[in-house]
Specification:
Layout lengths: L1 H30 L8 H21 L9 H22 L3 H11 L3 H52 L5 H16 L4 H11 L7 H28 L6 H25 L4 H11 L5 H10 L3 H26 L7
Helix pairs in contact: 1-5, 1-8, 1-12, 2-7, 2-8, 3-4, 3-5, 3-9, 3-10, 4-5, 4-9, 4-11, 5-6, 5-10, 8-11, 8-12, 9-10, 9-12, 11-12
Membrane topology: Multi-pass membrane protein
Subcellular location: Cell membrane
Main location: membrane
Length: 328
């Protein structure tokens, strides 16, 4: 029992400390004045319009639909979808509600999940995690984009005070769908997925620059979170950030376990999915708040708070899940 606890604690430290360091480095860059407040928006555009599309296209260009494990995908995203929908019902259908909903179910699977699952569960666990990662952006980020666009349209329509006919609603939905597809998130996902089905390989002259841009996304996005922490009055949002962190770190994995159990998933796959759900809020949620200019301070604080809390919650969750490995 003691050795298992030591392995869990070490794995969590190995995966989470680099995230904390990069956020702290960004905070320091802001404090030293090396990155001005006026540059935050420009840095956000680089991350959202250049680095993120590069990662999404390159990741999806390697996904073969026929190789995906549909049961694990269905379990993971059913739980995420239920939590997202429940948050919208609770918070209201708005861009702020969408930002909170995304924060509740969007895990830091790359920077934290890959090293953590690799150390604790080995190659078998990584296979399950990579199945989720391969379609994580396709499902969550595309769906979130559509919800954000619909919320923007709804808020604009409410502000105009005009009558709501079925025709105007249809036009609003159609425009939101168009904006949701011709967008820096879904468009590279769709293009990459279509390219993957051709069976072709990206030429090295294209793939290598894309790989370099993709590798830069995680560190730059986390430093941007730290920079925003310095320039934002996030202390006022400690209560909201703690609430988001609690839902992300505790409610999300509990809901996933319930959904997985009902769907008949057992053993290693269920434990790995629950571990992924227990990860802190991913930095991509922050990019959405920057793009739509809503809930930036709150979500920025929630990323830092959930990452810090995860140092305690993840080892406890891993220990609680350990007996389930024997039931697979």
């Amino acid at each position: 029992m003691g050795s298992r606890k030591g392995v869990c604690a070490m794995a969590v430290m190995v995966s989470l400390v680099p995230v904390v360091v990069l956020i702290a480095l960004g905070y320091l860059l802001g404090r030293l004045g090396w990155v001005k407040a006026t540059s935050v928006r420009d840095l956000s555009n680089i991350v959202f319009l250049v680095l993120t599309p590069a990662l999404l296209f390159r990741t999806m260009s390697q996904v073969r639909v026929q190789d995906l494990n549909l049961q694990t995908i269905a379990v993971y995203f059913t739980a995420a979808g239920l939590l997202f929908a429940a948050t919208l019902l609770w918070q209201g259908f708005s861009t702020l509600g969408a930002a909170r909903a995304l924060a509740h179910c969007f895990s830091n699977n790359i920077m934290v999940g890959v090293p953590l699952v690799g150390v604790v569960f080995g190659q078998e666990g990584l296979v399950t995690l990579f199945t989720i990662i391969s379609v994580h952006a396709l499902i969550l980020m595309t769906a979130a984009t559509l919800v954000f666009e619909l919320a923007v349209m709804r808020q604009q329509h409410a502000a105009s005070g005009g009558p709501r006919s079925y025709r105007s609603m249809a036009v609003t939905v159609g425009r939101a769908l168009k904006n949701g597809i011709i967008h820096p998130i879904p468009l590279p996902i769709i293009c990459g997925l279509l390219f993957a089905q051709t069976g072709l390989q990206l030429p090295e002259l294209i793939d290598k620059p894309l790989a370099m841009l993709a590798q830069a996304l995680g560190p730059v996005a986390l430093m941007l979170v730290g920079i925003t922490l310095f320039y934002s009055a996030v202390g006022r949002y400690a209560r909201q950030a703690s609430r988001i962190a609690a839902i992300k770190l505790l409610v999300h994995p509990a809901l996933l376990l319930a959904v997985g159990w009902l769907w008949g998933l057992r053993g290693m796959p269920l434990v790995v999915l629950a571990t992924a759900a227990a990860l802190p809020v991913g930095a991509n949620v922050f990019l959405f708040t920057q793009r739509y200019e809503v809930g930036r301070e709150e979500v920025t604080a929630s990323i830092a708070v959930s990452t810090s809390f995860a140092l305690v919650t993840i080892p406890l969750i891993l220990l609680a899940l350990a007996p389930m490995l024997k039931t697979g």
